Amino acid sequence: MIKKRIISLILAAAAAATSLSACSGTTAESSSENSTEASDGAAQTEKITLTNVSYDPTRELYQNYNELFADYYKTTYGGDIEVIQSHGGSGSQARSVIEGSEADVVTLALAHDITLIEQSGLIDSGWLDEFDLSSSPYTSTIVFLVRKGNPKQLKDWDDLTKDGVEIINPDPKSSGGACWNFLAAWKYALDKNGNDEEKAKEFVRKLYANVTVMDSGARGATTTFVENGQGDVLIAWENEAINSVKEYPDDYEIVTPSISILAQPSVAIVDANAEKNGTADAAKVYLEYLYSDEAQKIIGENGYRPTNEEILNSFSDKFDLNVNLCTIDDFGGWDAAYETFFDDGAIFDEIYDY
């Protein structure tokens, strides 16, 4: 376990360093280009460059969205825009922005990671209400990805605690998805044990004792399970599981546990950077357009749940819309959840054998 943890931390640090150098190298160049940027929709002719610092599994989503957005921006404002992507574990990405990675916008796995950037002074207070639905233009949930035929018959969270089950799961210290995973398992354990927190703690202790590889981010965990063939089950973002099954239909299948969680990735303008780079107006349009019908369809096509109910229902063949979902409010919000479960010395540190 110690070796795995050390490797995880090294990978997280490397990812943050890569994001820092990639983003910093482009923002200086784009700053001069952005000097005649559109103001509240005014026409502009100079090319604008935005940097979107995001989390692991959104690569494909934003590749597709950025193409759509560039066409929309050209048609609407008469100018060219390029969006540079940076990806890694959500917590690691937040730290890279705090340490100097010049993101114009962040699109991270959970609100807490953006709050940390806010506390550094880079994001204005009130960001959670700047965009609709608490600045969460899409949602997801947590599922199990198993090998075809589900040879170990893993159907719910308690099956993951059995002897001999090998779990692949990212690290909550660097991965936002891993925090959602933990909370979904905890809620199941509480319900199973009559809200007895000591029994819930013992349950998740047994579950995490079966984690054989703890990657720094969700995409790394998917690679470990799907590409490297390790483990019996991957605790995964729903979109990661959907895409894995789509790519390897004969090799994998999805199991939806009896209780999961409504995962709400969050978006925000990094105000200090956007003002300095002259990209504030374009950054606002970029995030607002995620709520458009066209963008919501791309969101659904990439395995995320659109927040537009009508468009979400059009993907009912892709998503289990009847799954029992708890929410972050069941844990008192992210500040309380972090203090209870993920801060140094909190419950995760208690139950995980480093």
Distance between the termini: 5 Å
Mean pLDDT value:
90
**Assigned CATH class of the largest domain:** Alpha Beta
User: What ranges have pLDDT less than 50 throughout 5 or more consecutive residues?
Assistant: 1-42
CATH topological fold name of the largest domain = D-Maltodextrin-Binding Protein, domain 2
Question: Considering DSSP H and I runs of 4 or more, what fraction of the residues is helical?
Answer: 40-55%
Provide the domain count. Answer: 2
What is the number of beta strands?
A: 13
Main sheet: strands, sense, barrel: 5 strands, mixed
Order of helices and strands: HEHEHEHHEEEHHEHEHEEEHHHEHEHH
**CATH architect. name of the largest domain:** 3-Layer(aba) Sandwich
Radius of gyration from the CA trace? 20 Å
The secondary-structure class comes to: alpha/beta
Strand order of the largest sheet: 7-6-8-5-9
The total of helices stands at 15
Shape estimate: globular
Brief summary:
By secondary structure, the chain is an alpha/beta fold.
